[in-house]
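New to this. Please check this record:
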Amino acid sequence: MVKFANRIQPCDNGLNDIFSYANDPALISFAAGYPNNQLFPQTELQGAFNSSLTDNINLQYSGAAGLLSLRTKIAQHISSQQRTFTAAEILLTQGAQQGLDLTAKLLLNPGDGVVVEAPTYLGALSAFDAYEPTYYEVPLHDDGLDLNALQKILLTHSVKFIYTIPDFQNPTGSTLSLAKRQALLRLAARYDVIILEDSPYRDLRFSGQSLPSLASLDTQNLVISLGSFSKILAPGLRLGWLVATPQLLAPLTELKLGNDVQSSTLIMNAVDQYLDHHDLSAHITKMNHAYAAKMTTMCAALKRYLPTAVTFTQPSGGFFIYLTLPASVDTGQLLKRVVLPQAKVAYVPSASLFPVSHQANGIRLNFTNLDNSTIELGVKRLGEILTRALTQPHYAKL
């Protein structure tokens, strides 16, 4: 009998379910965080790939850090009035997801402390779990992390890094305020803790003013920051980036070399070609206009169809809206026993988004991947089920 490593434990965190729901044509799926297929710049990317294929060097190995010209463009894209980044601070990765894994691999021994937002991104927990951390949950407010709760944890526990999604958080859509960004950096410096900033949604703001990234405000070299082309170009590219001080970037690059040698030379060159000949900012503006309309549609439908006991977030960007139900409702059981078979609607239940408390009364909804009429229909079906769940005792006890 094959004996797996101790870190491999039987688990069902629901991550595979999310993708299976999204790809099931029989369901209206609000589950996976998919961009909208109709917004991919397919023609432009096809031209960029064709151009890259004219030179066979783009089918060859390159380097672990990634294509220099593309790293330079990314550095320009993420630079701000607070800080100018350089290509030397950037490692290209297989989406931001690989950056989560590399950071955990670099920093964690079994039992080491990791602070996460409660709730948090399921894919991050999946990446961290392999390194057997001890999780500490910090509640979220509308303006981000509860810093008083965070400080209590840092005072009483040893923590290797704080994982945060400061811009349009997954799953709640909340955004960390500027005052809290500055205070979080002060706390990290005081307790000598790395901050892992995950910002795949940063460019997807529908209203309000953009806030400086944690990396741009960092003066103590304590922030590792992740970004991705998955949400602003196409997830099938599997291309993201990691930003860190050279002291951290060097071992992270060595870990990537051992993990997959390098990101795809062909894909890196194609994205570089795309950025040479097309306006990424204009493309993002187009996406934001479309996504803002979808979010407005979903929020209006939620107001129309949800029972009054259910609350929901109204983010100013990103991909997700988060519903909170009375504590008596287990949204995971409700999904499997009632919502999927009766309403043919899928969502992400919250229990797996809380690695310690496993709070089960939340729902994550994605609004970006469906047309407005389907959003309306799906929310109507969901609202009917939730209304029954909160008025009929046998539903509420599921």
